[in-house]
Amino acid sequence: MHRYRDLHFWNRSKDLSVEIYKVTKEFPSDEKFGIINQLRRAAVSIPSNIAEGTSRKSDRDFGRFLQISVGSAYELETQLEIARDLNFLSDENYLKLSEELTIIIKQISKFRSNCLH
Predict the structure, then answer these.
(1) Which of 8, 18, 54, 60 could pair with 4 as two cysteines, CB 3.0-4.6 Å apart?
(2) How far apart are the C-alpha atoms of 42 and 17, rounded to whole Å?
(3) How many CB atoms lie within 10 A of CB 45?
(4) Residue of 20, 35, 22, 23 lying closest to 101 (CA atoms)
(5) If pLDDT is split at 50, 70 and 90, which confidence band does 116 have?
(6) In angstroms, rounded to a whole number, what is the distance separating the alpha carbons of residues 86 and 89?
(7) Residue 113 pLDDT more than 70?
(8) Which residue from 78, 62, 77 is spatially nearest to 10, judged by alpha carbons?
(9) pTM
(10) How far, CA to CA in Å, does 44 sit from each of 17, 60, 86, 87?
């Protein structure tokens, strides 16, 4: 059994969620129930599914939750691109957030390959 707080990618994804909340505070208020909500939900889903997965009894189940986390990460990546295209997100913020997201995806994928059989 794994402790989610000990997983580096859980900590990074939690920190990324906080950054998403900070960045989206600057978005137009009429997007509160649109892209802001979508970005926040996808971001929070990543560490949440990692944490939930660690409570499962088998590595197979844990791996399934990690795959869901990766899916949420790709969902977030798409939403970040849309936010940038709508000029809600600067190119600088987009690059910073998407680079961090890429690192998280790689770490989760590597962990799944190396530690879960």
Answers:
(1) 54
(2) 9
(3) 20
(4) 20
(5) confident
(6) 8
(7) yes
(8) 62
(9) 0.94
(10) 6, 22, 22, 23
CB distance 104 to 45 below 8 Å: no
Q: What is the mean pLDDT of residues 76-90?
A: 97
Please give the backbone phi and psi of residue 102, each rounded to the nearest 5 degrees, phi first.
Answer: -60, -40
Indicate the pLDDT class of residue 117, thresholds 50, 70 and 90. Answer: low
Tokens of 76: 């977030």
Q: How would you write the chain as a 3-class SS string?
A: CCCHHHCHHHHHHHHHHHHHHHHHCCCCHHHCCCHHHHHHHHHHHHHHHHHHHHCCCCHHHHHHHHHHHHHHHHHHHHHHHHHHHCCCCCHHHHHHHHHHHHHHHHHHHHHHHHHCC
In sequence order, what are the residues at sequence separation of 6 or more whose Cβ sits closer than 8 angstroms to the Cβ of residue 27?
35, 36, 83, 88, 89
Q: Which of 37-46, 69-78, 92-101, 106-115 has the lowest mean pLDDT?
A: 106-115
Report the alpha-carbon distance of residue 85 to residue 31 in Å, rounded: 14
